[in-house]
Amino acid sequence: MQKKKANPAALAPILVFLVLYLGSGIYFEYIRPVEGQMGFYVISVVVAFGLALIVAFAQNRSLSFDEKIHICAQGIGDDNIVIMLFIFLMAGAFSGLASAAGGAESTANLMLHLIPDSLAFPGMFLIACLISMAMGTSVGTITVLVPIAAVMAKETGYPLPLVVGTVVGGSMFGDNLSVISDTTIAATRTQGVEMQDKFRVNIKVALPAALLTTVILFLYSMHHPSAHLADNSFHLLLALPYFIVLILALCGLNVFIVLGIGIILFFLIGLFAGTLSVPAAFSAMGTGTTGMFETMIVTILVASISALIREYGGFEAILSFIRARAKSSRGGKFGICALTALMDIATANNTVAIVIAAPIAKEISDEFHVSPKETASLLDTTSCIFQGLIPYGAQLLIAARLAGISSMKIIPCLFYQFLLTGFVLLSILLNKES
Hints:
Distance between the termini: 25 Å
Order of helices and strands: HHHHHHHHHHHHHHHHHHHHH
Shape: globular
Number of domains: 1
């Protein structure tokens, strides 16, 4: 395969997207807010990427329009992209059905019931970790748990930002490690690795950070009043599918089978528990898959843009820039982290950040001999770190609004994110060079 000549101008579509999306997000979030809307969601990410694709098509007149369409089709038709799209659909159906059945609330209330009052504060972090791993969504976990965390803060006198930050940290832990999270799906499929392989690499940095966070919260709770939370009702059977899905996924079962089993279990148990009817169940699955449409369209657009940028020499330009500064696999890993962090800061969406950074990260990993599973782990972990830190990301904005505080006040209390950053950097620095 002929090596492409480095062409920095080929990166113009990415620049157009970043200026349009980041610029409009900052404008509508901080300069002229739109009532009832988060600034980074005023202009659809699909529209921003659509305009970027038009710019990509306008470049390189040596290729005909039909040739460019063929390049896009090859990018979209990649096996991993197709698999990713199908998994998104199944994950959406699972999430919609589980939500309609009341699985998340039952799981949260069950775990709150099992944890002693004296351990409620560190227990809240543990609950957020496990529920997010089972649900595969940090935003969903935050929506369920932050109102409970606010009650805890009121009853104990714990600082509200600290309790909310604890929930956000646990939610990002689970989002990062869940095998049905859209970030995990995007990171693994774009690198062509199995989810359990990425999990094994990921857990080596995430678990120590989570354990140290738990110790800090436990020591803090020893010198403060216990939290007695109201006993909310739960249905044990409605919590069961989440744990079955989690166990099956960790055992390495194919993700399609795992999600299929989860959908069947929630369907049957929801009917048995009386929380679902047959029409409501199918409607919930439809709503869940519809919620994935934007992510799927973004994946298709980014695959098209990336294919054109690669053809024009844009990826080679990025690799040339990194080659001049990184001389080893360690430098390549730092390059992957920096690229992903910048994309997440710019897009305020960790899944989108991964989809944009992934094809370039794959080129970097090939060039600097970074294993695909390490690349997938770095993509997912870095995006989740920054998504949980930026004050204009959906996670902190939703948590802040539910708690009635500023998102900026939560940031100093995000112990898990800061510790995870440290462990990621240490893992890169201490890892033997390839």
